[in-house]
Task: inverse folding
């Protein structure tokens, strides 16, 4: 009844869903990628966004995907093998193996929520971006997760488990504009995307309801009895849940008269 597939498969299926395609198209539009630019996808996962970035920057451009998960890197390489301008590297986005001001566009999609230090990643992203460049960060705020259930206390306990234990930086959505400003970016736009789920199976692909409920019981956020009733209700009754992801579009100030031509100097 509930979803149990490999994360990479899930990420690509989410990207191909109406929800994924909708907000990813918006993030792509906000990036304003021009032909020939260097585009950096931080935490690229299995490479869901790399082909669209390659298409936008064209044959003369460079798309660089970075992820610390070897399996994701392998899958992203397979997926983009035919695209000469795409390189996928294994690495930690806290420490990019890239020269200062060597990148025109940077992007995260549900990545800063997981990293050890989002401010450090933003500072590192700022370092490699050139004057006049742009970045787009698409990150959820898990405190916005609501799931319809008659007992609000149980529903809140589930969300509290998600925000306190399941996701490292669960409040990154609301914090991003402040952290990006602190890192030296100009925040141009914050676009909230509220996903609504009327179908339990679709929701489970994103939320992992059964798996997370079991963890919430183990961590004493829910009793076994509450969890059993909760899962039974979610499976048997009409379903509704929602959560909000924020697309934060930022730019790097370009002093008047600055010429921004730079050469791609990424380390091999
Ligand atoms: C939810 S997935 C999103 C993948 C992709 N952006 C997408 O939209 O499908 C988060 C990705 O961030 C990567 N990640 C998390 N922390 C990282 C870090 N410190 N350095 C590099 N990659 C990281 C994970 O390995 C994972 O592939």
Result:
């Amino acid at each position: 009844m509930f979803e149990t597939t490999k994360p990479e498969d899930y990420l690509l299926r989410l990207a191909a869903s109406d929800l994924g395609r909708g907000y990813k198209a918006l993030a792509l539009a906000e990036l304003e990628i021009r032909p020939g630019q260097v585009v950096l996808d931080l935490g690229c996962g299995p490479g869901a966004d790399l082909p669209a970035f390659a298409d936008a920057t064209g044959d003369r451009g460079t798309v660089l995907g970075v992820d610390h998960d070897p399996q994701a890197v392998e899958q992203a390489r397979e997926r983009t093998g035919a695209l000469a301008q795409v390189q996928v590297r294994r690495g930690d986005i806290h420490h990019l193996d890239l020269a200062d001001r060597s990148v025109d566009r940077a992007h995260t999609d549900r990545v800063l929520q997981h990293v050890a230090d989002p401010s450090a990643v933003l500072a590192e992203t700022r370092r490699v971006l050139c004057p006049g460049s742009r970045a787009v960060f698409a990150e959820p705020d898990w405190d916005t997760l609501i799931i319809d259930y008659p007992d609000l206390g149980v529903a809140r306990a589930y969300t509290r488990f998600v925000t306190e234990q399941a996701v490292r930086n669960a409040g990154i959505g609301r914090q991003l504009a402040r952290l990006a400003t602190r890192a030296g970016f100009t925040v141009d736009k914050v676009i909230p995307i509220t996903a609504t789920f009327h179908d339990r199976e679709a929701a489970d692909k994103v939320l992992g309801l059964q798996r997370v409920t079991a963890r919430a019981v183990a961590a004493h956020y829910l009793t076994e009895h509450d969890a059993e009733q909760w899962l039974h209700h979610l499976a048997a009754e009409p379903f509704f849940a929602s959560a909000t992801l924020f697309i934060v579009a930022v730019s790097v100030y370009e002093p008047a008269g600055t010429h921004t031509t730079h050469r791609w100097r990424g380390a091999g």
In short: The chain is about 40% helix and 25% strand. The first strand starts at residue 38 and ends at 42. The pocket of S-adenosylmethionine is lined by residues 11, 15, 43-45, 48-49, 66-69, 72, 92-94, 109-111, 114-115 (CB under 6 Å).
